Each structure stands twice: as structure tokens, then as C-alpha cells.
Amino acid sequence: MIKFFLTLFSFFIFALAHGQAENPKADKDLATISVLDAADSVMIQPTADELFIYAERNERSGNLNEALVLFKKAAFEYNVKKQRIKYGKTLLRMCNLHLSLKNLVEAEQVALHLALKNYSRIGSSAGQMETYNMLAKIYFEANKLPQSLWFYSQQGLSAQRLKNKAAYIDSVLGIAAIKIKKKEYYLAIKDVNRAEILAKNSNINKFAAQIQQSRTAIAQKSVPKI
Asked: Domain range for residue 174?
């Protein structure tokens, strides 16, 4: 019985080998299919830079949640590769999206515990200044005005050290917004006027609309109700 099965198996192997020898194209096709299948089974992972670009596209399209997911993946890859500047930049983009989505706790956590620590670690004064600005906006939105005022002040001090006039004007207008919210209109208008003079002397035009909006808010809210 055993001899019978061995003979049958040998015959099967011989027939299979003979068929392959007569049809080499079939072998080639099978090999090609195997390679294609293997290629399909391996998903090409996008780079951190590509993830960042995809996130920006989604943000511009209004897909904020999808953009946030992609920025988070990009940040992870930058951190793994120790690309600290790009890592910090991506974290701040995440903060801005959290702020837009009113995820204030998440925005604070990313800015305070990740972005600020990252920039402090690498000694980036410009990065720290940008993070102060982000934290000031987050606390302002959360109606935590003392914290917002402190971070706008830190932004202003950093801007002066870095000779960044635009960032300094931005901090002055941020402080003015806090004073408007606290109904300190006299003090607020002084800050707005100072920001306007600084912007004109520095030929910086991008704050014109914000300055006008601040003036309008002060005029409307400071008028006594009859």
C-alpha cells in the first residue's frame, strides 16, 4: 500500500514539472501576479511632510476634524525623527484647530505641555513667543482673563527682545481686547491708539481691520444705555 502511494505521488510531481516546463509563460504570469499581490498588500506610508500638506488641504476645505487627525500623525512622525522645529509648528497648528473647534482643554494641553516644552528644550525664543500668543488666545476664549493677560504680556516681552514689531503690536491689541472684556474702556482705547501708532510707524498694515473693530467695540459698549 505504501509503495502504491509513493508511486502515485512521484507520478504527480513528474506531471506537474512537465506541465510547467511546457508552459513557461504561465510560470511568468503567476510570478507577476504574486509580485503584484505582494505590492498591493504593502501600504505605502506618507511622510510627515506629506501628512502636513494633506492636513493643510483639509483645513482649507473646512474638514477640521480630518485636518486635526493628519496634523497629529505628522507631529508624531516629526517627534520620532527629532525634527523639533517642524514638530513645534505642527503642534501649534493642532492648537489652532482645537481652538476653532472649541476644544479648549485639548488646545491648552497641547500648547502648554507639548509645544512650550518643545520650544524651551531647543531654545527657540520665536517658538516660545508664538506659543505664548496661542495660550493667550486659548485663555481669552475660555474667559480666563488673568492667564490670558499674562501670556500676552510674555508675548510682548519676547517680541521686544526679538525686535518683532508685528508680534508686539499683536500683543498690545490682545491686551486691549482683555480690557474691553473687563469694561476698562479708557485703558483699552489707550492700547488701541498705541498699537495704531506703532503700526503706522512700522508700515505694518495687517492690523488695520483689527484696530477698527476694537474702536467700534469700545464705542458701542462705552455708550451709556438710556
From this structure: 164-226
Q: Using alpha carbons only, what angle is made at residue 84 by residues 82 and 90, rounded to the nearest 5 degrees?
A: 115
The SS3 of residue 1 is coil
CB 55 within 8 A of CB 92: no
> Tens digits of per-residue pLDDT, 120-159?
999 999 999 999 999 999 999 999 999 999 999 999 999 9
CA 208/CA 211 separation, integer angstroms:
5
pLDDT, one tens digit per residue, over 157-200 is 999 999 999 999 999 999 999 999 999 999 999 999 999 999 99
Residues 57 and 102 in one domain: yes
Q: How many CB atoms lie within 10 A of CB 149?
A: 18
Total domains in the fold of the chain? 2
Alpha carbons within 13 angstroms on the beta-carbon side of residue 1 total: 0
| 68 and 120, same domain (yes or no) | yes
What's the CA gap between 96 and 70, in Å, rounded? 14
With respect to residue 118, please indicate whether it lies within any of the assigned structural domains.
yes
Q: How buried is residue 130: exposed, middle or buried, by Cβ count under 10 Å (0-12/13-18/19+)? A: buried
Tell me the C-alpha distance between 61 and 23, whole Å: 54
